[in-house]
Design goal:
The chain is α/β, with parallel strands linked by helices and 268 residues long. Helix content is 23%, strand content 28%. Helix 4 (142-150) links the parallel strand 10 (128-132) and strand 11 (154-157). The longest helix has 24 residues, at 244-267.
């Protein structure tokens, strides 16, 4: 989960915390203990013997261990003005932004577990939730489908995709087109939550580290990858739950095993 929105599910913050502020707090804390920050563009990563080389726009950096924490980006619908409307009605994270839609009408796009979870979460906040899916039935597991069907304020638009966003200063509605009939319908809404999957940011390592079929770095709960001394943490790693709290946990685990790795090669 990117630290770009209000975060309400991170422990210790009763009223939630802005994602940027949380990230800055973490950065300052790390620097207080001696961490050095370099803001630069990474161009290439490769192994050079026992060393890992990170080629950047500001020069080359070398280390015997390397932690990959490049995250994953939500897939977009690819519609005009979609990115311009982020924060003004277009959303990709119900856990982050759902509370802004209390007693309002929202559209959720998707059919997997993530979309179903988002719709359920929003059903406890919004006045009305409309789930749009391109097929006739959800791909989500049965327990999610049952709970959605039982929710009084959730309705479904099947065999349809969103093909237009309507807006003034912010989103005012969407148009959906039925893929079977070609019929278009406009839906008035206050927000749309797009939950059609995520794309891991693995371009830099796709020729270097083993990836799963969806492009995530294969690393178990030790965060170790297929290259000795290289670790993957957060959303870029193949894992069951992607939240800030699990990414932080990954970081602690990676540090432990990175230290273990350094001790092993020093002793060897």
């Amino acid at each position: 989960m990117a630290l770009t929105n209000q975060i309400d599910n991170y422990p210790g913050f009763v009223q939630g915390i802005d994602g940027f502020d949380l990230g800055q707090n973490m950065l300052q804390q790390a620097e207080r203990f001696g961490a050095e920050t370099r803001l630069t563009e990474v161009l290439q990563i490769q192994s050079e013997g026992d060393w890992k080389a990170v080629k950047t726009s500001e020069g080359d950096f070398y280390g015997k261990t390397l932690v990959i924490a490049t995250g994953a980006n939500p897939k977009s619908l690819g519609l005009p003005e979609e990115q311009a409307l982020v924060g003004r009605g277009v959303n990709y994270c119900a856990a982050c932004d759902g509370m802004f839609y209390k007693d309002k009408t929202v559209v959720v796009v998707g059919g997997g577990n993530s979309a179903a979870e988002d719709a359920l979460l929003l059903s406890r906040v919004a006045k009305k939730v409309i789930l749009v899916h391109r097929r006739q039935r959800l791909r989500a597991t049965k327990i999610y489908q049952t709970r959605l069907e039982e929710a009084q304020n959730v309705s479904f638009v099947w065999d349809s995709v969103v093909n237009r966003l309507h807006y003034q200063d912010k989103l005012t509605g969407v148009t959906v087109v039925n893929q079977q009939t070609g019929e278009e319908t406009q839906i008035d809404c206050d927000g749309i939550f797009i939950s059609i999957g995520r794309t891991p940011a693995t371009t830099l390592v796709e020729q270097w580290l083993p990836l799963d079929k969806d492009g995530y770095i294969i690393a178990d709960e030790t965060t170790k990858t297929g290259v000795a001394g290289v670790f993957a943490v957060g959303d870029v790693r193949k894992k069951a739950v992607r939240q800030v709290v699990t990414a932080v946990s990954d970081g602690a685990i990676a540090v432990h095993f990175a230290e273990e790795y350094l001790n092993s090669i020093a002793g060897g």
